[in-house]
């Protein structure tokens, strides 16, 4: 009773701060349109960039292994959970990322925490981008190394901080490859040069870039033709299922297998899940038109909304933030979109800076051109009604 009262009090504070969260229930499989609260909505907020989450090949591969191996993996990889499917997927990921080896984690979140809590030691420093994902922030908090934040993708500031941290034993630059709220791409080419000049290591979180960026969808390393020391990725966005991974040298993978607590102490992914991801990588490698279609959707939306007078930020990625400004205006805008059958959330402080509230659109290869044009038309009509554009 006392316990619940205390929690109720804390929830009241959360509500008063405007930070109270609720969930929407999807009543259909993931796709470009879903049923929410009994109504069909076009989804412009999914991470299923390549449109594979509901692909027949992933489902069939998964079903087959589900029948063969059952639902769960029964233990951690180091005890009873390791199967040929885990190893097959790791080989596939290493080949896809063009690295010596790869290691699976149960999620991208846990992959970041595993890397950051195990590799940097006391006396080391982590240089972390101001807009890095929560899983990197939490990984830094769990690390024995200190953390220094540099301004978002500001290479001058990073260099300044590299100069200021020369007394530390080792320096690690840690960055998202594509930033989840701003859609910006980390300038990995410049970062690698700085790392070389100041003898630092680079850890990149390619959750939003894997299957999306680079000539073959291998991510930011391929996009910039560089090889960071640690490449983390997720299976839950463009690869359509669930799980995380780290790709890199044999030594890196062997080290994580022995020291990353989120690897050692977690139950392995279900084998059927691994089979789905093997099928997803096959599709990413063979169906290059998916990525081309996805990126042409991005181009169309960005250029049309910019021409209309919207402030559209970010680089050429499937994350398209449209700045509205005031938090309440952004909520009204998102409600109007919902009214017109489009689900795209308003993102407000503290997730983003004050006066930078936005509609965060994400686009997938599964959207039809008619969906894209309907979205653009809705932005035209709502923007004029609400005086966001003239
Ligand atoms: N890194 C980034 C940049 C992300 O956006 C996310 C997911 N939102 C993660 C890591 C975590 O990945 P997962 O969902 O596989 O845990």
Automatic annotation (TrEMBL):
Swiss-Prot/TrEMBL catalytic activity: 6-carboxyhexanoyl-[ACP] + L-alanine + H(+) = (8S)-8-amino-7-oxononanoate + holo-[ACP] + CO2
UniProt domain Aminotransferase class I/classII large: residue ranges: 40-377
GO molecular function per UniProt: 8-amino-7-oxononanoate synthase activity; pyridoxal phosphate binding
Pfam families: Aminotran_1_2 (PF00155)
N6-(pyridoxal phosphate)lysine, modified sites: 237
Pathway note: Cofactor biosynthesis; biotin biosynthesis
Assigned EC number: 2.3.1.47
Alphabetical list of PANTHER family matching this protein: CLASS II AMINOTRANSFERASE/8-AMINO-7-OXONONANOATE SYNTHASE, LD36009P
Function of the protein: Catalyzes the decarboxylative condensation of pimeloyl-[acyl-carrier protein] and L-alanine to produce 8-amino-7-oxononanoate (AON), [acyl-carrier protein], and carbon dioxide.
Summary of subunit composition and partner proteins: Homodimer.
Name of protein: 8-amino-7-ketopelargonate synthase
Organism the protein comes from: Alteribacillus persepolensis
């Amino acid at each position: 009773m006392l316990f619940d009262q205390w929690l109720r009090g804390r929830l009241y504070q959360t509500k008063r701060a405007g930070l109270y969260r609720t969930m929407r229930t999807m009543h259909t499989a993931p796709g470009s349109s879903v049923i929410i609260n009994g109504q069909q909505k076009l989804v412009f907020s999914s991470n299923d960039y390549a449109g594979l989450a509901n692909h027949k090949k992933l489902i069939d591969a998964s079903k087959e292994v589900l029948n063969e191996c059952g639902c769960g993996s029964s233990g951690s990889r180091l005890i009873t959970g390791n199967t040929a499917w885990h190893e097959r997927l790791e080989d596939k990921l290493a080949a896809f990322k063009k690295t010596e080896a790869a290691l699976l984690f149960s999620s991208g979140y846990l992959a970041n925490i595993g890397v950051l809590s195990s590799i940097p030691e006391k006396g080391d420093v982590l240089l972390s981008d101001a807009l890095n994902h929560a899983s990197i922030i939490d990984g830094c908090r769990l690390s024995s190394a200190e953390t220094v934040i540099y301004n978002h993708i500001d290479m001058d500031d990073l260099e300044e901080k590299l100069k200021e941290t020369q007394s530390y034993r080792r320096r690690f630059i840690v960055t998202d490859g594509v930033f989840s709220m701003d859609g910006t791409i980390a300038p990995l080419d410049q970062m690698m040069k700085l790392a070389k000049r100041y003898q630092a290591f680079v850890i990149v979180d390619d959750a939003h870039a894997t299957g999306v960026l680079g000539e073959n969808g291998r991510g930011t390393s391929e996009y910039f033709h560089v090889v960071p020391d640690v490449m983390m990725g997720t299976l839950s966005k463009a690869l359509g299922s669930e799980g995380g991974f780290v790709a890199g040298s044999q030594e890196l993978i062997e080290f994580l297998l022995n020291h990353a607590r989120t690897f050692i102490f977690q139950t392995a992914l279900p084998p059927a899940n691994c089979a789905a991801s093997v099928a997803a990588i096959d599709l990413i490698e063979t169906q290059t038109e998916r990525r081309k279609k996805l990126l042409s959707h991005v181009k169309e939306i960005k250029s049309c909304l910019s021409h209309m007078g919207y402030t559209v930020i970010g680089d050429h990625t499937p994350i398209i933030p449209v700045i509205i400004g005031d938090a309440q205006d952004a909520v009204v805008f998102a409600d109007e979109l919902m009214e017109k059958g489009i689900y795209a959330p308003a993102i407000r402080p503290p997730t983003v800076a004050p006066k930078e509230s936005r509609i965060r659109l994400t686009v997938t290869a599964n959207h039809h051109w008619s969906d894209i044009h309907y979205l653009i038309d809705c932005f035209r009509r709502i923007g004029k009604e609400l005086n966001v554009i003239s």
